[in-house]
Design a protein that fits this description.
The chain is an alpha+beta fold and 240 residues long. It contains seven helices and ten strands. The chain folds into two domains: 147 residues, Electron Transport, Fmn-binding Protein, Chain A (Pnp Oxidase, Chain A, Roll), CATH 2.30.110; 82 residues, PNP-oxidase-like (Split barrel-like, Alpha-Beta Barrel). Helix 6 packs across helix 7. The two termini are 21 Å apart.
């Protein structure tokens, strides 16, 4: 199997992490106007890996975005490494805009179940980042600027439409399979794992504050292809 390209690595990081460092520019009426401002945000992403945020209108980063939509998001995949600088991280550059897209909102809440209690508050809003480019550092000497098209990859509209039903079916009727994915294939303990998302390249799992990425060996574009791959992974887990 060939090594994944920079776009695939960057996309995998964005999909596998549930938080990021958000960089905005201080608004004109704030102290140090124009200076960079970094903050921690929870993130999800669309099927094309475009980041989704749920942020308060009272937060400084939201006020900054209202004045200047340019953003940078750092996705840090170095946690737990003895030498963090040998690990992957990607800085995504683009612009952010509010979104009323119910599918994107549902994807964020599925990724972050705790957000359901405040997602409907008037002082919170969903934002989507339109990616312009990204800077990937995949380890020492592995540095790449990546165009937006290479980050997004191929989108499967049929799978995106079917996603809510697939997730509900797996968590309701095949919770044992989700448990096997987490414990046998991904090496994590504990009960109560749930599937929170599925896209052409893998599925997202969660238990409490821990998120996992279940990669697919075969790209899927439809609900039936997803079913075949999920069944294959169950068989692999049971024989592990």
């Amino acid at each position: 199997m060939s090594e994944p390209g920079p776009g695939s690595i960057a996309r995998g990081l964005i999909r596998s992490l549930d938080r990021a460092s958000l960089g905005t520019l201080m608004r004109p009426d704030a102290p140090d106007a124009g200076s960079p401002y970094a903050s921690l945000v929870l993130v999800a992403c669309d099927h094309d890996a475009s980041p989704i945020l749920l942020i308060s209108t009272l937060a400084d980063h939201t006020k900054n975005l209202t004045a200047d939509a340019r953003v940078s998001l750092l996705f840090d995949g170095t946690a737990g490494l003895d030498e963090p600088l040998t690990g992957p991280r990607v800085s995504v550059q683009g612009t952010a805009a509010k979104t009323d897209d119910k599918r994107l909102q549902a994807r964020f809440v599925a990724r972050h179940p705790g957000s359901a209690m405040y997602a409907g508050f008037k002082d919170f809003a969903f934002w989507q980042v339109t990616v312009a480019r990204a800077h990937l550092v995949a380890g020492f000497g592995k540095i790449h600027w990546i165009a937006a098209d290479d980050i997004h990859g191929e989108v499967a509209s049929a799978l995106a439409d079917a996603e809510p039903g697939i997730i509900e079916h797996m968590n309701t009727d095949h919770a044992d399979a989700v448990q096997l994915y987490a414990t046998k294939l991904l090496g994590h303990d504990g009960n109560g794992w749930t599937m929170t998302g599925i896209d052409p390249e893998g599925a997202d799992l969660r238990r409490g504050g821990t998120v996992l990425r279940l990669p697919f060996a075969n790209r899927v574009a439809t609900a039936e292809q997803a079913r075949v791959e999920l069944v294959r992974l169950v068989k692999q887990a049971r024989s592990a």
